[in-house]
Amino acid sequence: MLEINDIKPLVEVPDYSLYILIALIVFGLILIGALLFWFYKLFKNDKSIEKQYFQELKELDFQDAKHCAYIITKYTRVLAKSEREKRLSAELIYALSDHKYKKEVKPIDKSIKAKLEVFLENVHV
Q: Where are the beta strands (DSSP E) in the chain?
């Protein structure tokens, strides 16, 4: 038989498609795992932040009345969930209005501290 000179022999082409498929599956699993972990942390931190706010309100030092008024206002708004808690929070915030937005403020009196204690007893964290 005659051999044709201008036709080259078959060349083996490397096929990496299986490796690419495996790499994409592994990457997808890692991405899904990271998203699930992120959602878990996102929802887990909500409760721990509320517990942290509650603890800070319990351990509040009333030396700086203006700073305390702002902290109490911020944290009680976050912690109040039910209608009763929201009503107690609104009363407390209204009572603290004399301690905010002024240069010189008077110390926080016992009635406000008592309202804060009532609020903390009614909050469910």
A: none
Tally the C-alpha atoms within 13 A of residue 70's C-alpha that lie toward its C-beta: 7
Cα–Cα dist 109/65, whole Å: 10
Tell me the per-residue pLDDT of 75-85, one tens digit each, with 9 for 90 and over.
999 999 999 99
Fill in the amino acid letter for 64.
D
Pick 72 or 2 by higher pLDDT. 72
DSSP code, position 14: P
The Cα 118–Cα 112 span in angstroms is 10
8 A C-beta contact, residue 92 and residue 119: yes
Mark residue 13 as left, alpha or beta (left: phi above 0; alpha: psi -120 to 50; beta: remaining).
beta
As a whole number, mean pLDDT of residues 45-73 equals: 87
